[in-house]
């Protein structure tokens, strides 16, 4: 690697890392609020938040890496163009294509890394996130309970008058449940939950209470009433919830939880919760997402080394609009391919082929010809539109903009 290669990678690497970090933070901010709402008040809630966020990082990396590479190339090469460093290289006989070689190699390395992300890391972390979310949602009733609020769990409706989390006890409890045509009402002065060794369900222990059981459904219009029994008790025990409710399903029922080798092995085998069409769409979507990384240098550099410096913002806007439109077309095409509305080559591969041809033509015109930019008309239109909009602003705002510029 020459000094020039290292310098180019340094210029591109700084904005790439900054945009990657900012992109991850922005993508995870909304999910962070939802996780806080889910885990607030749970045992070890702070640790749960960071654990769940760590499982989401690979998922959002798959979204942030292409955007960060694209922005890093735009800002890095544009900075070298504004500082006349690219002009100096061209004057000394170093072509623009030669300056691009280090970032092409960088995109190849990142594409290899994304194979690991899409192929192995995302499936395992997606399943781990869903498993811990399921465990949090099915946590002991004691940690979900609130004073004076009716709650339901496994066919039971209950309300607590007073809750002492420090001593892990609750007072004045009312429970109503229906099971196999029977209705039972329980009131107790106090109670607590006990963990069982051989049963994942917590054991509900009630002290000093009364139980009323009615065998059947009460019908006021009937001539006879169902049998009822009433008794007092000093201690009553019953497990809370179902055993299967506390055990998460095995990995792989969702096609997005399968690794690349597992997807390849099951492409022609329908699964219980995924059809062959859904498996193939998921596989091709991952392959196209990886190949997109290799196209980004050829797409970004023509927008970054434009001839007119004052059109930098417009070039960046057009470039980002093209990338966003491509990602949206790829996403919608994958959804249509999963549903059978479009063939896989149309819904998933056609957007990538069009983007590749567009990037190759633009790159060739920029690096090996002297033709003008095909988007020059678009930049001029946006520039004139911006001037007209600025003309509508008050004079003081125009003066401030002029001073800032």
Using brief descriptors, characterize the structure shown.
405 residues, alpha+beta, 11 helices, 15% strand, elongated
Overview of this protein structure:
The chain is an alpha+beta fold and 405 residues long. The protein folds into two domains: 3-136 and 251-392, no CATH class; 145-239, no CATH class. Helices cover 60% and strands 15% of the residues. It contains eleven helices and six strands. It has helices at residues 3-39, 45-82, 85-91, 96-137, 141-144, 260-265, 276-304, 312-339, 344-368, 376-391, 395-404; strands at residues 151-153, 156-164, 169-179, 182-194, 203-215, 227-239. The protein has a six-stranded antiparallel β-sheet, with no helix packed on it. Strand 2 and strand 3 (169-179) form a beta hairpin. Helix 2 (45-82) runs parallel beside helix 7. It is elongated, with a radius of gyration of 31 Å.
Report strand order across the widest sheet: 1-2-3-4-5-6
Mean pLDDT: 83
The biggest sheet amounts to:
6 strands, antiparallel
Low-confidence stretches: none
Rg over C-alpha atoms, rounded to the nearest angstrom: 31 Å
Q: What is the N-to-C succession of helices and strands?
A: HHHHHEEEEEEHHHHHH
The amount of beta strand, in percent, is 15-25%
Shape: elongated
- Helical residue percent? 55-70%
Tally of contiguous helical segments: 11
- How many β-strand stretches? 6
Number of domains: 2
Spatial gap, N to C terminus: 39 Å
Structural class: alpha+beta
């Amino acid at each position: 690697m020459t000094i020039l290669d290292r310098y180019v990678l340094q210029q591109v690497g700084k904005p790439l890392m900054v945009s990657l970090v900012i992109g991850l933070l922005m993508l995870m901010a909304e999910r962070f609020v939802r996780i806080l709402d889910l885990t607030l008040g749970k045992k070890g809630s702070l640790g749960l938040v960071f654990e769940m966020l760590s499982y989401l990082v690979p998922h959002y990396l798959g979204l942030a890496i292409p955007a960060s590479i694209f922005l890093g190339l735009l800002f890095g090469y544009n900075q070298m163009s504004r500082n006349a460093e690219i002009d100096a290289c061209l004057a000394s006989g170093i072509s623009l294509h030669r300056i691009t070689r280090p970032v092409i190699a960088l995109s190849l390395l990142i594409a290899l890394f994304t194979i690991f992300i899409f192929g192995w890391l995302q499936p395992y972390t997606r399943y781990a996130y869903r498993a811990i979310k399921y465990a949090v949602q099915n946590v002991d009733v004691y940690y979900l309970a609130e004073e004076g609020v009716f709650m339901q769990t496994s066919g039971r409706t209950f309300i607590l008058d007073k809750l002492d989390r420090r001593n892990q006890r609750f007072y004045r409890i009312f429970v109503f449940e229906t099971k196999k045509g029977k209705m039972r009402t329980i009131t107790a002065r106090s109670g607590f939950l006990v963990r069982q060794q051989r049963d994942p369900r917590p054991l509900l222990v009630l002290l000093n209470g009364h139980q009323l059981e009615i065998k059947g459904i009460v019908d006021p219009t009937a001539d006879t009433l169902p049998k009822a029994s009433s008794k007092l008790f000093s201690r009553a025990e019953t497990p809370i919830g179902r055993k299967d409710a506390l055990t998460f399903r095995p990995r792989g029922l969702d096609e997005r939880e399968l690794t690349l080798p597992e997807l390849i092995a099951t492409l022609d085998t329908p699964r219980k919760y995924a059809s062959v069409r859904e498996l193939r769409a998921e596989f091709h979507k991952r392959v196209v997402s990886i190949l997109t990384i290799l196209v980004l240098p050829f797409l970004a550099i023509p927008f970054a080394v434009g001839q007119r410096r004052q059109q930098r913002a417009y070039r960046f806007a057009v470039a980002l609009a093209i990338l966003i439109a491509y990602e949206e077309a790829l996403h919608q095409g994958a959804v249509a391919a999963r549903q059978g509305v479009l063939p896989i080559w149309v819904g998933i591969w056609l957007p990538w082929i069009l983007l590749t041809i567009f990037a190759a033509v633009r790159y060739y015109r920029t690096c090996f010809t002297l033709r003008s930019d095909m988007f020059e008309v678009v930049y001029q239109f946006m520039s004139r539109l911006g001037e007209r909009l600025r003309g509508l602003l008050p004079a003081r705002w125009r003066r401030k903009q002029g001073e800032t510029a």
